[in-house]
Amino acid sequence: MTYLCATCGTQYPAGDVPPAACPICEDPRQYVPHDTGQVWVRWDEFLDEHRPELRDDHGILGIGCAPSFAIGQRALLVESAAGNVLWDCIPYLDDEVVRQITEKGGLAGIAISHPHYYSAMVEWADAFGCPIHLHEAERKWVMRPDPAIRFWSGERHELGSGLTLVRCSGHFEGGQVLHWAERGALLTGDIVQVIPDRTHVSFMWSYPNLVPLPANRVEAIGAALAPFRFDRIYGAWWGRVVERDGSEVVRRSVERYVRALADPGLPS
User: Among 19, 143, 155, 209, which residue carries the largest CB count within 10 Å?
Assistant: First the structure.
């Protein structure tokens, strides 16, 4: 049987007993809960206690589960002429989810922004017979190695039909986003965090522990995205979407963040 970390949702290789620890949660960008310590959930029990949630999220099919589990992100189905790509991943997968995605053409690949969302990526890749595209800088964070995982290097990786993975680093060294040229969209997880007012985005090294990124790292994210044009920015959770002027939102958000680091007064 396989086990999920209840805090980050990462699935570990099959074993008779849970792992001794979750390295992803012991890293200071995540956390082990103070009250309960490390908690493990058998994947079959998790499936029994949850149900799939598939619905439109600002023009893209979102895939999540209810009740919310671990970090609570939803995945997105990017429908492309080069084959569909699952952006980010969730711990949940069942026959109904496979059926609905198969009816839309299945998956040609999976791409995930950073290790907090690797979750059950191997189950998804096995179900759809497709590769998983991760940046090589995150190799050490793969807790369940599998031949389906394809590590890429450099700063950009083309998936075809205007789909481009862009290495931004920041939150994680190999943190990546997906530019979808056909839709004028940027899918970011929380490498670029869509904040509640939707007029800006933000950036952090550790979100739960409130550790910011230095100015040069944030400026590097802005520089990596400057060549791309996009209106919408899709964050990691349901409804976290910037609907217009996404390129400009990123530009002025980088400027605001750097200004705030230099002067602790309220940024304009």
Answer: 143
**135-160, pLDDT tens digit by residue?**
999 999 999 999 999 999 999 999 99
* Ramachandran sector of residue 188 (left: φ over 0; alpha: ψ -120 to 50; beta: rest): alpha
Tokens of 217: 């790292």
Tokens 């949940």 belong to residue: 92
Region class of 258: left (phi > 0), else alpha (psi between -120 and 50), else beta: alpha
Determine the Cα–Cα distance for residues 189 and 88; give it in Å rounded to an integer.
7
CATH number reported for the structural domain that contains residue 109 in this entry: 3.60.15.10
Q: For residue 82, give its domain range.
A: 3-262
Alpha-carbon distance of 236 to 193, in angstroms, equals: 8
Cα separation, 200 vs 227, in Å, equals 19
Q: For residues 247 and 152, give the distance between their C-alpha atoms in angstroms, rounded to a whole number.
A: 25
What pLDDT does 268 receive?
Answer: 63
**Cβ proximity of 224 and 238 under 8 Å:** no
